Queue: 2 jobs
Job 1
Amino acid sequence: MSIENTEVLLKVEGISKSFGGKRILKDVSLSLNKGDLKVLIGPSGGGKSTLLQCINLLITPDKGKIFLNNRDVSFNKKKDVLALRQQIGMIFQDFNLFDHLTALDNVSIALRKVKKMSKKDAYIRAQMELERVGLGDKLHHYPAELSGGQKQRVSIARALAMDPLLLLLDEPTSALDPELISEVLTVIRELSNSGMTMLMATHQMGFVKSLAQEILFMENGRIIEHDTPENLLNKSKVRTRTQDFCSKLL
Amino acid sequence: MFLDVSFYLNQVIPALNKGLMVSLALIFPSATCGLIIGIIIGTMRAFGKGPIYGFATVYATIFRGTPLVVQLFILYFGLPNLGIYLSPYLAAVLGFTLCSGAYHSEYIRGALLSIKKGQILAAQALGFSTWSSLTNIILPQAMRRALPGCGNEIIYLIKYSSLAYIITCIELTGQGKIIASMTFRFSEVFLVVGFYYLVMVTIATWLLKKLEERFYVPGFGSR
């Protein structure tokens, strides 16, 4: 990571969201520089998933602003919303691969149907992305024929094929067997090293400590603590909520 | 009397073959258009809101809730009162299409509702428009799940196409009735008529099985 690389890529300002009168997000702000890897941690129900889904407008925020590359994103113009989603990759906890498509088609379908690439070009690109995540030998396998770790790697390839400016990862390893977690984390680590900007909800603390620039601790719809992993977990003089939470993680 | 070969060869078979052609001409467009209407109405019922949902629901309620014969009578004998004259054939195709469309729509609605929310979410996250995610992601999955039910409806349609003769569209059953009435050999004629339907349904069943195999995806649905 180069030091001069401090261009702000994503800025979220005062996002709020309520569902049925219950406030899930309360005035949340954050920003990501190009190449940053920031992680969201905190108890479930704290608003991590909702925040991630608000950032690519899968959920429309009630209030607040989102700036991508310094451009104020409109929440209501359909065209802007679709364009924004193409620029932001999303990785889900339970993969959400398209069940009726092979790995190759899972990765290429958005290239063809959304980016209007030719079938041939889309396949070439999709194959390249699948090889990059180590699945060059599984091109024609259906999701049901893949392990959890392989499924998640296909979903990462699917997001990367769209050339996103940043990736949102919503607990990408939480649905995986312990033995499969490392193969997914390895891919994410390589992505981070190659300069991909990422915002990730995770509880893999070893990974967080070694790679994240900043921990954002979320509880009850607010980011209540945010600092470098070292400051939050080791150097703080008072016991932080993050320390408290992490001490309970296995 | 069952062994009177020339009766079958010279009277029954030629007449029934003529009727069979009319039956096929009823079944093919009705099955195709019925399925298309079923997909549209089923989608409107599964995902539509307000007037879209309301229209589709009223349609399904009326055409599933009234006897097909009554629908045919209204189309053929009732519409002329409004100045709309349909030929027996057209009235029959229209009636079968609208009726089977209503039944198809329920199989498709059920299949659409069984698609996991995450599939739609993933499509949206990739920038798919609502229409594009429906046609590229949701319907291809739902149709695989609906296929056994829709196949059942098409098989049922083959048999209820016999109601067309009631509004004077003389198809297979109608031809059988004419010959049987002329010769008073009801059991012989209708045994052959029944056999014709059995063959049609057997072929349709085989084709539907091939279709299911063609679109089979590992781990998708049952098996």
Job 2
Amino acid sequence: MMTTNWFKFASPAAFYPIAGRLIPWFGRIAAALVLIGLFWGFFLTANQLGGSNPQKEYYRIIFVHVPSAWMSMWLYLVLAGWSAIGLVFNTRLSFMMAKAAAPTGALFTFLALWTGALWGRPSWGTYWDWDPRLTSELLLFFLYIGYMALHSAIDDTRRADRAAALLAIVGLVMVPVIFLSINCPDPNQCAALHQRSDPGSIHLSILIPMLTMTFGLWAYSFAAVFARLRTIILTRESDSAWVRDVIAKEATV
Amino acid sequence: MFKVFYCVLARDITLAMRRRTDVLTTLFFFIIVVSLFPLGVGSEREQLRMLGPGVVWVAALLASMLALERLFAADYEDGTLEQLLLTGQPLAVLVLAKVVAHWLLTGLPLVLIAPLVAMQYHLSANAVWVMMAALAIGTPVLSLIGAIGAALTLGLRGGGILLSLLILPLYVPVLVYGAGAVAVSAIDIADTEPYLYLLSAFLLGASLLAPLAAAAALRISLE
Amino acid sequence: MMEFFNQGGYGGYVWGAFGMTFGLLLIEILQLRGSRRATLIRIGRLLRLRAPRQAAAASSRRQGTSGTQP
């Protein structure tokens, strides 16, 4: 049995320096993975995919599109997860973590929509279609916006944290239902414009750079969320003694 | 527990009956929105018949959302809500009673006015029945989900706009199947059954979970 | 080289997608850096405003740290 006391790291004062030490590492890993992914994606792949109706060079958008879409969904899970932990254990750091994850998640949601539009235009002939996945991603964007709007509308930090956390969880519960309704607007039959994707059917030379980019953006998300978290911690704890020492040390640097 | 439920229900309805304009405002908002669409998109019969179900549902969504702002607001301002919280009765039951009262006052009128609206869009008699059934099952879901948002945005400046931002994305399933049922009834009335079953499932799920979530939200907003 | 930027005639789409992605990530990094600096300065100013009052109270129980100079 592990007997680590995880709550020790749940104190903002304890986590602030840890996050500070982790950020450069995540930044380096992100930069390295993204560069490898880009190089591989642009120089070690074929210019065309498929047989009779090939995907031309524009398929390379997959290397940013799929990773952003995955990260947008993953960060919403992270957000809702930390919200739930915060409500259950009443730990302040969890709420701060959730709040720090939201803007980066919204950013990736926007990027997934943007890159999807630019991929859809040459391959489907339209920037936007009311395809299930596009619509779900758009709604996910609205959920992020709602979370941030509710949080910033409430002045009292404690209430803002808890109200936004509850909203995030309600959103998470609704997501499968929303997804069902968008996927099968007609309960008698379901249809989708996206090809059914099956990781096994993707060629390795595409899959590897795509996964590399995904891990790169994942590491980037860690760095960005921790950086935002540190600012949030400082702002909220500005009255405590340890922040005074931090400021004295870092303000001059 | 049922006694508490009826008490709150009766009180809310009595209060609303004393201020009948509030109820009528929602109803007329619905009628006006629905009437504006033909002026905007043109009044061709076929086109209207196609747009009808969606327009009616979007208007119902907006109307029930606008009314939601008042769900807890009055009780919050005069302190009744805090008293209710202190009674020690299960808060979820109180919330459910308030939502039911709210639906009777704002949702039910929409269901009853639906035939009139359907006439404007040249919908067939079958479609009218399906629309009334779908609205009758779907609008309570809107009120239930909306109650969570209303509780979260209690007493905030610009609460109304914020409420719509939070809640409208969550209304999507009801909109899809509600409008879908009416649209499909034009083709084959038998095909509408799964839609109504799904809406009923939403209603059951929402009436179980939404009062709990709204009660939790009220506690957060009032502590 | 031109061929690489052209991407078989789809350069606009490909670079539009990659450009927006890394452009926005760069903006986020700069924004995070900026907000961190702004926060440090703001809290530092707040502490300096409060320092004279707290220094008197703190000097009795704390060894003087660099932040508590009046």
